[in-house]
């Protein structure tokens, strides 16, 4: 069983602008969740809304402007609402690295699938693997607009 999903994209934008797209609640809803409820800050557990695909609570664990943002959530549970840290979860990390030519590399890593319950491990990995490809495409579209 694979434990880590990793994706990289190159975006023509500054680190600050990319970080803002990920860490600013008014911007993240333009490419990732449809809605965001609650405080989107380290130590808080806001809720992402995905329309007909459910709502998921997450726990923001790190925010280092303009290089790193991370949260934990419960993959495979399209309607998980509750204390994320009290149940098996995965770590989603965004790393932003300047490439020196007006672009930055964004690396998305989601890890911890091997620690999920056996009945959701495979489907959670497969669903999120395709989901991150789709969502990072939306992030590229956000910057192309």
Structure summary:
This protein is α+β, with helices and mostly antiparallel strands and 145 residues long. Helices cover 28% and strands 32% of the residues. The radius of gyration is 15 Å and the shape is globular.
Write a structural description.
The chain is an alpha+beta fold and 145 residues long. Helix content is 28%, strand content 32%. Strands 1-7-6-5-4-3-2 form a 7-stranded antiparallel β-sheet, with helices on one face. A hairpin with a 3-residue loop joins β4 and β5 (68-73). It is globular. 22% of the residues are buried. The model has no long low-confidence stretch (mean pLDDT 94).
Mean pLDDT: 94
The helicity comes to 25-40%
Strand content: 25-35%
Helix run count: 3
Morphology call: globular
CA distance, first residue to last residue: 38 Å
Number of strands: 7
String of helices and strands: EHHEEEEEEH
Give me some keywords for this one.
alpha+beta, 145 residues, 3 helices, globular, 32% strand, seven-stranded antiparallel β-sheet, 7 strands
